[in-house]
Amino acid sequence: MTRDERTRCHWARTDALLQAYHDTEWGVPEHDSRALWEKLMLDGFQAGLSWRIILSRREAFRAAFAGFRPEIVAGYGEKEVGQLLANGNIIRSQTKIRAVIRNARAYLAMQEAGEDFASFVWGSVQGKPVMGDGSGTTTRSIAGNELSAALKKRGFSFVGPVIVHAWMQACGIISDHETECFCRGSVKGRTPL
């Protein structure tokens, strides 16, 4: 096996798990509503922690939150909150756990009102990935600020501008691989940020 010498974003250069995630998922445009919602919930859990921690526990999160199926999570009550707080395989933050439940309800409310989550999210960037600056240091954007406010208006919580910006990068809504990364420029149809 030969060593992969391609240049990646700085955050994915030394860890095999992060490298695999970077090369196959991060920045790839996601258009599935449920998958977008799952990734937003995981980005909320990541706040204040490293993404590697969340990534290494992703399957445990999926098991704990019924595969991130909003229609199930929305029905969670105090019993389920207690079970989640006792689950050492996930991040046991009551604030973050309760936010996921609230956000499942907000997601379903949008759906019941005829508003598709993916269409709503991608509509915030006119349906095309926006090109980030490639610096690897940007933690906020106008697009992230606006989408954060729009999500909060629809009842979402724990979706501040920094979390939403990171999620938009992860889901390819903002295409923001670093300038020297081999993935930079791999998504067609981008517009400048």
Description:
The protein is mainly alpha-helical. It has a single domain, classed as Endonuclease III, domain 1. The chain contains 10 helices and 3 strands; from the N terminus they run ααααααααβααββ. It has a 3-stranded parallel sheet with strand order 2-1-3. α2 packs antiparallel against α7 and α9 crosses α10. The longest helix has 19 residues. The C terminus is likely disordered.
In a few lines, what is going on in this structure?
The chain is mostly helical.
Set out the fold topology.
Layout: H1 16-24, H2 33-46, H3 51-56, H4 58-64, H5 70-73, H6 78-85, H7 94-112, H8 117-123, E1 130-131, H9 142-153, H10 161-170, E2 174-175, E3 191-192
Parallel strand pairs: 1-2, 1-3
E-strand count: 3
**Rg, alpha carbons:** 17 Å
Assign the CATH class. Mainly Alpha
The number of helical segments is 10
**In the CATH hierarchy, what is the architecture at level 2?**
Orthogonal Bundle
CATH superfamily: Hypothetical protein, domain 2
Proportion of residues in β-strands:
under 5%
- Stated plainly, the CATH topology is called Endonuclease III, domain 1
Global mean pLDDT? 94
Strand order of the largest sheet: 2-1-3
What summary fits the major beta sheet?
A: 3 strands, parallel
The helix-and-strand class reads: mainly alpha
Which stretches are low in confidence, meaning pLDDT under 50 for 5 or more residues running?
188-193
The outline comes out as: globular
Percent in helix: 40-55%
Q: What is the H-and-E element order?
A: HHHHHHHHEHHEE
